[in-house]
Amino acid sequence: MSNKILVPIDFSENANTAVQFAIDLAKKRGFDIHLYHNYTVSSSTFDDVNSDSSDDNFKADVLMADLIEKLKANNPTIVFTSKCERGIITESLLKETKNTTYSAIIMGTKGKTDDTSVIVGSTTYAVSQKSNIPVIAIPFNYQTKDIKKIGLLSNFKYAELDTLNEYIKIFGSDVKVQIIHVHYHSESESDIEDKLEIWKYQIKKHTEITDVDIEVDSIQTDIEELDTIPEVINDIIKDEEIDVVLITKTRKSFFERLFKKSVAKQIIHHPIIPTFFSKA
Length: 280
Known about the structure:
alpha/beta; Rossmann fold; 2 domains; 10 helices
């Protein structure tokens, strides 16, 4: 298994938040950290056109060098490396993961500005859908804390067990799992709870996690004013005090249908807690 985390940055405040999340994880789990930047118009040139710089001494190179120096000074036990290059991040970042073995990508979900940053919610989601390694989306202004409870969004797919095991490889198994299932009112509540109890057994059998609980809620689609699935999920996350939510990508899954709804931006573009996307 690789012992390195890839963190794309644009030198924004939320990119720094993602870096701090990676640092805290690296200290606990022994990871190295590789910072990655794609040149943009604002990061390629200095504000002062008369600035004394060499042909390849772009603004981003200077910012990256300063950042690496600071991070190494403040975190001497962690190995930091970096790379700046041209390209479109949704393409070059995925290429980077194929060239070198990483354990995960940790990304912020809001960048330098709402309009011009290349690291925004839609980019994070686009990367997560094609990445061959897990992607962890970090909310804007997130304060890193100990992870005690994770929420597994479930539709009873065996790929969800793979997602849990991916999480365990990166974060460890000392955590409680809350299985979250949101269904429509036409379905039988008792049947679903029976399925969830079976799913609890499967998780305990096929992963190293033994502390598992269930949370089920329903939606009535015939009443327009009622909450949507993403809104219900966010309410569960708040009520259950979940620290990280896990999303499994499976073909024609419940979650693919979920993400086609515009309201899903609450989870994808503006997560309220770190969101762990399984590898594609």
